[in-house]
Amino acid sequence: MPKPYTSSLDLTTGKVDLSHGGGGRAMAQLIDELFVRHFDNDLLRQRNDQALFTVPAGRLVISTDGHVISPLFFPGGDIGSLAVHGTVNDVAMSGARPLYLSAGFILEEGLPLADLEKIVASMAAAARKAGTPIVTGDTKVVERGKGDGVFITTTGVGLVPEGVNISGDRARPGCAILVSGSIGDHGVAIMAGRENLQFCTSIVSDSAALNGLVAEMVAAAPDAIRCLRDPTRGGLATALNELARQSGVGMVVDEARIPVKAEVKAACEILGLDPLYVANEGKLVCICAAVAAERLLAVMRQHPLGRNAAIIGEVIDDEHGFVQMTTAFGGRRIVDWPVGEQLPRIC
Amino acid sequence: MKYISEFRQQDLARQLAQAIGQTVDPGRHYRLMEFCGGHTHAIFRYGVQDLMPANVEFIHGPGCPVCVLPTGRIDNAIQLAARHDVILCSYADLMRVPATGRDSLLKAKAGGCDIRMIYSTQDALKIARENPSRSVVFFAIGFETTTPPTAVAIKQAQAERLANFSVFCNHVLTPAAMRAILDAPQPVAIDAFLGPSHVSTIIGSQAYEPFADHYAKPIVIAGFEPLDVMQSALMLIRQINEGRHEVENEYSRAVTRQGNLKAQALVQDVFELRPQFEWRGLGLIPDSALKLKADYADFDAEQRFSLPAIQASDVKGCECPAILRGAKKPQDCRLLGTVCTPENPMGSCMVSSEGACAAYWSYGRLRGKCRVTLR
Description:
The structure holds two protein chains of two kinds. By secondary structure, chain A is of the alpha+beta class. Helices cover 30% and strands 22% of the residues of chain A.
């Protein structure tokens, strides 16, 4: 059988050019030798414009995320792994088991193919680890200067187990508020990777797929979990305010119980940032019935992604819907919605 | 020094709260003006008020350089940025301050002006080096803390013959502002001052000695951590009770009596006093602001570009001027929370991270609304 392409893609010195988005042979080769080769699953290998699968019985969720992070590579990950983790997590926050992902790429003319391959390989590894194959996708190329290297959009579908009802509007007064680990790691790791803010830190992004952790939590207490949310852009403060607003409640959290790494605190101090507003990519907030809090905490701490989980506060009745915090100092303040963009292009 | 934890300890806070509670005269009302926006911010962020007795009141002062900048100067900055040969470099805080006609640097940037957000003067110099064919203007603001770095940048630009670099200078002076508050025709009742922290590292604690003497007000130079604020409040309360009016230095880990002589010399070299300068809330104050000396005229944006003095008026109902003087509090402003929010600020006190309204709104607006007991 004749070789489909006269020569392989030059993945060492080659660059993305406009023909790679043209719909012709160059694009087909890019897809074959890069995307299909790395993502490597039966559905994708069919090479249709869509992936066909049987719909399992039950309730499905679908979620989508665009990724524009800069720089493309950062301590603890890259735009590829982030794109997988982000959507897997959004699906998992409903309690669902993620099934499949799609991935749309907008590539900038001039992007080194070596970089693209690193990103794709990283996505493949992340998808494999999360048990969620990338089964369909799209490729476009824009002229130099019209894109920042690469933008990736992922969409995911998942299946919600019987009896599980997790939604942002289900928090009630008396519920406990838990967080799965230290906050602010991702945002600070990104800053360390950016040109004009140079300082040495040992901080690595916490980017990770949380579906395994969620599965254990749901198995341990399927009825008690009322809300799950991953605190990405806008940080923990935004996630808590969103949930408070959706549920029409208030919250009180205890600053001393919110885990923050010493290095993250220090970096935030220097830059005048509040860790509560810094993005996370591998953490979740859980609101559950008070009786189940300790049990869930124990289950979370058994999991590698929940070792530093903590109960940080409780939901209260409050017509104003404030998220309040007793400060480590002993005073009281609200944790408000963030204003504007603390750190641009963080996810 | 692990100051993040050491200066925010709850146990020490409780001990100080007890000491303050025992020291105050229950029949007296203590009015302490915290001059610096940084102190206002710390008080609200850590909930320091919750640990103070009810008869000790903090009055917010004008120590927020973004807040005291009159609207007309932001208008000038936007005019500069609108020139296609100019790159305007600005601190992030200034970007959202409302200018005339609800414009702002951020909106001007979205409209196509080349405005770069920077963290330090060194960033501005770098941009100037990288863009030799464009005029790079640094929008300089601040009290005495940020003036030395601007002086350094100007001298660096001179040494490098960086002809495309210039500074739009809005540096202001702390003692002049304190004098304006104390000399006001209808002065606000103030018993004592928490003196500025980082300004004092530059000018030294001796800069306040004339005030303590002439106006008979106690002044304690206070650090920015919440324990600093409480310790300083205790020192002020003691002075008030004992009828003393001295300058004391609580921030001794950073402030000396003479201050930073090298920095002072640098500033003397590069800058001179303007006859007068308009301050938001305090009006025209003589000898209160700096401009570049003739020797450095090449780097003075006001010499290089013609910038008309713009008399801009505040939004109707905006109480920033009164709040900056200490005459009113954020909650006294009708616009707060109704029309004026951080997303849609009417005045600079809501925009700046050190503004009293922003601090109150972001951290403290639950006061009087919620009755959650502290554990």
